[in-house]
Amino acid sequence: MNLTAEQKKTVLASFLGWTLDAFDFFLLTFLLTDIASEFHTDVPAVSKALFLTLATRFIGAFFFGMLADKYGRKPILMLNIVSYSVIGALAAFSPNLGIFLALRALFGIAMGGEWGLGSSLAMESIPPSARGMVSGILQCGYPAGYLLAAVVYGLLYQQTIGGYTVGWRAMFLLSFVPALIVLFIRSHVPESPAFVEARKSVRPGLLETLQKHWGVALYAVVLMMFFNFFSHGTQDLYPTFLKKQHGFDPHTVSWITIVANLGAIVGGLAFGALSEKIGRVNAITLACLIALPAIPLWAYSTTPFMLAIGAFVMQIAVQGAWGVIPVHLNELSPGAVRATLPGFIYQAGNLAASYGGPYQAGIAESVGGSYGYALALFAGVVAVCIIVVIRFSPERRGQVMTVLG
Q: Which GO molecular function annotation, any one, does this entry have (predicted)?
């Protein structure tokens, strides 16, 4: 993968933006039981924060994407990162569950913009032959953020530092950290060459472009609904499953989750690169097929070691499929709305799948607290749905990307 120094910095900035975005999101998944205890409620009630974050992300994807298609990928990406950093940290000061849920909804709006901005900036800045690998790298930012959250949770949570025991509120203050990326982007990352070139011409508007390509856009939203069920349905409640159903301590929950996300990173990189050889559609299909035999080991093992192996394989499959998505959606999207449409499609799919967390928790509690059953049910059904739906997708591997048309 031959990239210039500037292209490498662009990919790094996009990767870090998505990594720390995911870090902010996944911190919550480790803290559901503790927040529920402080606010005197149950896990399904607090898990509505996951729903609200996912449900509002499409607003941010549309808003920040429109700004980026008008003013440039780079300045709006910086604005977006500062926004989600500040709002994420404000959750630490929530006086009650209602305020906490409202802040997480606002965080979702800010979080929703980053993926589309970062992926369009990166994909428009690199040669076509590098897109598959870079797609895998970018999407690995998500499990990398989850892994980082797991490490921080294992190292800091409930530890005593200077006489102060680190609780869930202090964990959310770490959301300020991503704002530091803005300094790097401002100094080292150039604007998308495709966007700079497009400034010289008149481009069609969003509505005009959607009228021409509404079929692909609608199909992609359905696809991304299943993809978001696949990722969030196998990740968001897994720490709760390990704590409530198995009674594992924070350290054990942390290292199992770390192993799972190492598998996710392996899967994203491997299948992103593989998609350059066998195509985007075939790579996604193969990854989903791997998930099916992993379900018993992942959801029904009884020892930490076997659960970790199951989680490793499951996340190879889940993030292997996801590793192809940044390049696939950008290749499917018309150039004039590339900062808006891929991110909006992704987050519209998130909206359609956003109640998955509370729904899974409700299923688990209705069968005696069997989170393993709820996880297995979601993973199996959704993997099959993706295999079926992805076979109808157009394949546009390697097409030239401009910001016109």
A: carboxylic acid transmembrane transporter activity
